[in-house]
Amino acid sequence: MKVTTKKGDGGMTSLYDGTRVEKTDLRIELNGLLDECNALLGLCKVTTGSAAPFETMQRELMDVMALIACDSDRAKEQTLQQAVERMEAYINKVSKDMQFKFVLPGRDRADALLHLTRAKVRTCERRLVALMEADDRYPTVLRIYLNRLSDYLFCIILDR
Fold it and tell me: Cis peptide leading into 53, omega within 30 of 0?
């Protein structure tokens, strides 16, 4: 595989299906933000010393990125729906008897990093909403997944 192709030097890049688009395209912007989330989840994994649940989230984000880049795949959508259900079960367990409160980030390095990752997921969610307003071909499970992912990260923070 050749890493440097020089095809992007003019400000264009390719989607999953080979379609060439501007690097400012909403899909490219969103996938760049999701890539940052994936990198932050990698840091969460290293900082907490635990692969679970971060590697699962990383794999799921790769499915989200593929769906954004024009890969219509019912199996990926089903995987994300199952992830939503898994996250909701954990969220409900952790937040069962909890009253809402704002949490100040920074108890320790891992806490600060988890908060940063959660905030980046919220940014991705906002960009996804903008994309879905401009293009209605994307499955609703993408929006639900990102919304749940930020709640899930928040509950991981509370559960530490």
Answer: yes
Rounded to whole angstroms, how far apart are CA atoms 81 and 78? 5
* Mean pLDDT value across the chain: 94
Extract the tokens encoding 74: 């019912």
In whole angstroms, give the CA distance from residue 152 to residue 146.
10
- Please indicate, yes or no, whether the overall pTM of this predicted structure exceeds 0.85: yes
Contacts of residue 24, defined as CB under 8 A and 6 or more positions apart, other chains included, come to 11
Q: Residue 73 is encoded by which pair of tokens? A: 């795949």
What integer pLDDT is reported at residue 131 of this predicted model?
A: 97
| Cβ-Cβ contacts under 8 Å for 148 (sequence gap 6 or more) | 83, 84, 87, 88, 91
Residue with tokens 């905030």: 119
User: Residues 135, 71: contact at Cβ < 8 Å?
Assistant: no
